[in-house]
Structure formats: C-alpha cells, structure tokens
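Anyone? Bumping this.
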Amino acid sequence: MNRRMILYVIGFILAAEGALLLLPAIVSLIYLESAIWSFLITAAVCGALGAVLLLTCRPADTSMYSREGFVIVALGWILMSALGAVPFVISGDIPNYIDAFFETVSGFTTTGASILNDVETLSRGGLFWRSFTHWIGGMGVLIFIMAIIPNLSDKPVHIMKAEMPGPVFGKLVPRANDTAKILYIIYIALTGLEFLFLLFGGLPVYDSLVTAIGTAGTGGFAITNSSIGGYSPYIQWVVTVFMTLFGVNFNLYYLILVRQFRSAVSSFELRVYLLILATVTCVITVNILGTCSSPGEAFRLAAFQSASIMSTTGFSTADFNAWPGLSRGILMVLMFFGACAGSTAGGFKLSRVIILFKAMRREIRKLLHPRSVSTVTFEGKPVEEATISSISNYLAVYAACLLGIFLLLCLDPSAGFEENFSASVACFNNIGPGFGGIGPTSSYSAYSVFSKLLLSLGMLAGRLEIYPILITLIPSTWTRR
Amino acid sequence: MKIVIAGCGKVGTAIIARLVEEGHDVVAVDSSPSAIEEIINVYDIMCVCGNAADDDILAEAGVPGCQLFVAATSQDETNMLSCFIAGRMGAAHTVARIRNPEYNDKGLDFLCQNLGLSMAINPDRVSAEELYNLLKFPSAANIEHFSGNFDLIETTLDSSPAIGVSLAELRRRYDAKFLICAVQRNGNLFIPTGNFVLSEGDRVALTAAPGEAQKLLRKLGIFRKSSRNVMILGASRTAFYLSKMLTAAGISVKVIEIDRRRCEEFSAEAVGNGMFVINGDGARQEVLEEEGLTSTDGFVAITGSDEQNILISIYASTRHVPKVIAKVNRPELAALAEKLGLGSVVSPMRIVANQLSRYARALQNTEGSNIETLYRIMDDKAEVLEFSVNGDFRGAGIELKDLGLRQNILIAGIVRGRKAIIPSGSETIQPGDRVIVLSAGHRLGDLNDILSGEESAAQS
C-alpha cells in the first residue's frame, strides 16, 4: 500500500473541491446572499487541506496498483462529501451536520434522496451547490482531475477503473488523460445543450442551469417542492429526453463524434434500453389513464417517470405513490436495472443484466443438451467466461449489500416495510425517491441518525460499484507493501 | 504520434513500453485476452483483442490514419500480412518483425519492397551483431557503432593506471584521441569535466577515433585480445546468426543444445569451418567442463531463459573464461546480473526498442536533422544519438565552446566525410556532418534540441 501516493492524490481531490466551491460562491455573490461566506470558508479549508497534503506527501515512489486505485476513490469520495456538507451547516440551510452529510452524499452519488421537506427556503447558492454536486459526481471527480492534470500517475488506469461504473472497462483513445478530457467535453456539451433548450422554453436562467446540471449527473435534486411537476409540458419533455440521453453510454457519443454512426446506432445495449423505456411507457400510460385528465397527460407523465427512474435520476412530475399497483411495481423493477454502462446513471447497469440473461439462457439450454458448447456474445463480440463469472459474483455482492442495508434499516422503528425496502433500493441504486413515506412528495427526514449514515454508505457503495468501499473496510488492504 | 502495435509478446511489450514512455498514443492488438489484460493494467494504452491480420480488427485499432504500424507477433507470416493490410488501409509507415533466416537473406529487400514495409526488424540478428562486436572487442562491457567507424565503448575500471587521475591529466598523459563522455558511479551518472577524477569501479563511456580505441585501452590496462574460440549455449536463431559471423571471421564455435532434434536442424542450417554442435544439457557443469569451458576465451549464454543464462554465465566467470556474455531480456534482471558481477549483458528487447524509438522520433521531425542511430547506455540512464546535420541547424559554424549547449548534453564526436573527429572546444559543426550527441535526461528529436533556449521544442 503506497500511502503517500494515496494521500497525494486525495490532496488533488480536496484542492479540486476547493476550486469547485467557488462556483456556488459566485452564484451567492450574484444574488447578494450571506451564504457566500459559507462557500468561501469551506473552499479555503479544502484548499488549505489539499495544499498541505500536496506539499507534504509528494511521493518519491509513484507506483500504484489496483488496491491504491480503489482506496483513493473510496476515501476521496467520503472526504469530499464530508467537506461538501460544511457550507450547508455554516449558512444554516441544513443546520444538522448529519442531515447535511446525507444530502451531500446523495448529491455526489447522483442519488437525489433528500432530507429537506421544503427546498424552496434554501439560499440560491445552497440550491446551486446541492445540484452542482450531482454534476461533479456524475462523471466523477477523479476523472475530472485526470482531465486537467496530466501525468497524475503512470498507471492512471487503476483510478479510472475504480471510478467508472460498468462491467467492462474501455478507453476511447489510447491515453487515459485524453479519454477523461473527451468524456468531460461530451458531458459539458450535452449539459449546455439542455440548458439552452430549457432557456428556450421560458425557464429563468437560474432554474435552467440548476435543472440542467441536476439532469446531467442523473441526480434528481430539484429546486421546487413539486420537483419538475410545476414546469410547463415543454420543459418536462426536454427533461425527459435529456434524462434518457444521459443514461446512454458516453462511448456512443464519442463514436458519433468520430462519425461512426452505424456502430453507435447498432449498440445492442442502447436498443434494449430504448425498447424497455418505450414498452414501460406504453404500459404505464394505459395503466394510469383513469387518474389523468387526458391520454396526452398520461403519456407525458408515464414517459417522464420511466425515464427518470430508469436513468436513476429521480425527478418527478406526479406523485407516483398514488398510481395503481402495476405501475408502481414496474417502476420498482426499473430501479434495479439502471441505465447503460459508461453513462452517469447508477443501478446494476443494463449491460450486466443483458449478459446475465444470456448466460442464464445458455445455462437452461445446457440442461436440455448437456454436451452443448456455446459462447455468450455481447455487442457482436464473445464475452469471456471470466467476465461472466465476475458479473455473477457482482450480482451476489450487490444482493448481499442490498439485503444487508435493508435489514439494518429495519432496526429503525420510524418507518414501515415499504419505506425501508424502497429506501434501500432507491439509495443503493442512486435513484432518490422511493415509495410510501419517502415518495416523491415527502423526504428521508424521519429516519434516525444511524439510518441516515447507513443509507449514505449505501449510496456511496452503489455509485462506486461496491468494491472500493468494501476493499477499504478490509484491514489487509492497509498492510504495508 | 499515433502508433498501432500488433502482438504483445516480449518484443511487442518492450516496444510498447518504450513508445509509451516517449509519449506516443499507442493502440495494441493481440489475440489473447489474458495478454491484453496484463498489459492494459501496466501501460496507459488502448487494446483491441483479435487477429492482427484481420482488417476489421485493424480498423477498430485505428490503423487507417495511424503514422506507424508495427507487427511484432511471433509469426513472420502474420507480421508480413498484417503490415501489408495495414499499409493498404492507410498506415503511413509499417514495420514488421521478420526473424526467420530464410526470409532474412537476399530476398528481404524484395519482401520489403513488395509488401510496402518501411523497415524489417530482426531481434535475433541485431543481438547476434552486438554479441559479435563484444567478442571481437572483449575489453568493452558494451560497444555501440556509429558511422565512420566511430565506436562508443562502455567499460568498467577495476585496476587501471587511470584511477585517481583527472581527465585533463589523462588526456595529457596518453596522447590518444579520445573523450570520456559519461561516468557512472554508485548508480549516478556524471557527464565529467576536465577536473573529474576517476576512481575504482567507475563505469565509463568513451569515444575514440577508429584504431585509437585499442591503443588507448592497452595503455589503460584494460585491453583483452579478441576471442579465438567461443562456446555458445543454446542453438537459437541468434546462435545461428552469431555462429555464421564468427566462423566467417575464422573463429571456432561450439554450440551446446539440449534438444537433439534442434541440434540436427542447426547442424544442417549452419555449416561452417570450425563449427561443432554438441547435444547436451548446458546447465550441467560436467558437460561444460568436458567440452573445454576452461580453454575457451568467449562464452555466450543465449538460451530462452534469462535466469539460466545469468546463472551459467556466473559459473563461466568463476572458471576464468575471459569474456562472458549473457542474453537477458527482462530489464530488471539485466540490472541484477550486472550487480552480480556479469560484465556484459545483451538484451535483444532493448535493441529493438532503441530501433523503434529512433524510427518514431525520426518520423516526428521530417524537416530537421535526421536521427541516424539511437542507443541507450549506462543502464538506460543516457542516450547517444547520431544526427546527420542539414542546413536547418542553427549552431552550424559556431565553435563548440560558444555553442551554448543545454545541461547534460555532450558532443561526443563528429564525422566529416570519412574522417572521425574527437571534438575540442574550437571545433565547429558543419552542414553535411554527422554528429554524435550524448544526452542524459533529455529526449532529443532534432539536433536543434541540444541548444539551450530550445526547451519548448524538446520534451525533457
């Protein structure tokens, strides 16, 4: 374990957070809010801590292996959330630190689960920072650092692998540094596009910006108590389309950029993603027809909610708690699937679901024809057996963590079965609102301190795909090499 | 620069390692997923899994539009075919590893021309050449050739009258034309000035005018006669090339090989005067003793295993064989072998990596002065490059002492026409010359990079 190298990279993370905190400070400056001081103070603290780490821990030995990558990502994210919560406490937006921590973890992990019952009382700067954490966490802070600081490490693959979700790791271009740059350029361009579309729909600049960054990270923090529900149908459709777009593998956007349209469109994962969304939208539309005033409205609400849940965003335009059981059941199942690998969305990831499904089909065929030999293929290529088994193992770890969180959550007497189960699923898959008492119109504020910390850990584990958090908790990771 | 490398074996990996270090965008192609897994964790590159001669795979690797394509799979035929396809798909330059002796005779030029190859690399042949040079000149631990018969010799000072003498004094005392370019002491590299004093155990790199080197080393007390009979362990392809060169120079060769069938093949391929092929296990000391290890004056271990080469070479050293050379591919083992007291180590992978990095750098600057050769010396701590000077060089005609060289750069020699010059401060560089430059810590791509004030141009 190269501890100096870990601390050195974490120094970069804190310095980057310090710099990023200046953006909400600017927002507060524009609206002449006193919250500006909370951001400036926290930025100074982050900057100072980062500078101390960078100056004292410059490593002589820059060697780094996968365990260092995992630990850097896990510790970096926890520290970043711990410090990111400070401005809320200082400004008084969220006076309780544990609540603020939960809110910040929910932000960075792009979950969107909130403990706030009335978000409209928050300062403008605070609301911006809350949604901006989605944007930072969506693509990943280490990938951001990698994009701006070349030669962070001679083996950047290990950090990138640990922070980028998905079953198979692939680079767009040979150098990790350039890959990170391209990803961020696509990310910024798409966010900017959504901002323009929202602005065109008559939304104020502030609302457009905050909604755009909240969608981009597939986060789900909104700035009104009715989430997106209070906006015009046009705005709702724009958000629906962009939630869907941010759930698509970013590699496909790169393929489009380099004019390989055919291979981008022929992606099997993309087709399955769109097919599921279309099917689910149709079923829910029919199912909720009775509760809506017109078929058009039912279609809009169904499309919005399906896209929101499948892309793990968590915005809402209607209280889906009040929908019929079939629709709620479908939304619950969608929560597990998640969107495409390589996107900003959370969840189990569709590519894993597809590969597991194909492996399952093969297994059944093998029972019928015990001597049959076949290879699972995905995106036109054979999938290695090692990949299949690692996905199966991931499923086991995923299920174990989810059940563990659920059981521990049940210790809390303040909520019922429906709340506890949907809270575990919604937090672990980085969605946000659940069912029952934690639905889109209510919040997580009723949970105890222990439950909030537990759910925070669950959100981090879900965003970082479990292993980084698990590995950091194992003592033998920390032995000196 | 965008480079695609097919084949992630030993040679491919060595090339990838060097080209990534030089800052190129590298895409690797290999048919084995495990080899790719291994390599992608170590180097910052992109990998494509598949057959290197399949145009779909090559297209996925981005061959259309790449500047350099290197085929280094284990099969010559695959390499030729994939280079041919890559060339047709739009790779600007293609390099193939071709090592079968049958392709490496007169027909090689024909192959290169018709397949559109820019260069063929043959690690076995280049390492045989290096081994041959070392056997002909045993005083050197390492020897590198430049044009105009210029040699750069690396040698270790164990007991020599030069110890304790400053370089300025040394030059005065021995009236030979030479220049000590670099000294490695306790793992640190120095580019010495006139008042630098040599001490025991120093490893020095020196250039000398042709013919002067032998005289000088004799005076310094580190001269040894060239080998007259050589024992080679392992009937590899390198052994084939080496024994051919040695027998042609009238040196008797004994090749020891454990595999009977290989022995038969070898004796049929490599026929020459004074050639013996012995079937026996060279790792057994009795076999070596029986075949006259003590009476040979050159011992070369070139089996497929680095570890075996090192161990048997150490044994040969203890039996007082005057010149012992081991082939060691893995760089970390090569450093270890030198610590264990092996004077000479030859690494085919390093030679190939040198060739490729020279080629890539020459491609990058098509306008400036061309790099003719590139070597790494002193455990890869320094580079020696030969440039041919053209009109673009800004220091032409200026006396060397006024040239304003960057730190850790030394002009080690100038070749003008057929004349080799050991430069003094009043010498000038003229267009048309070839200049040999030693550099530590800089990555030179053009001769202008040696001048200070050009920092922005060179990536150091």
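Late reply, but here is one note on the structure posted above: The beta strands of chain A are 377-378, 381-382.
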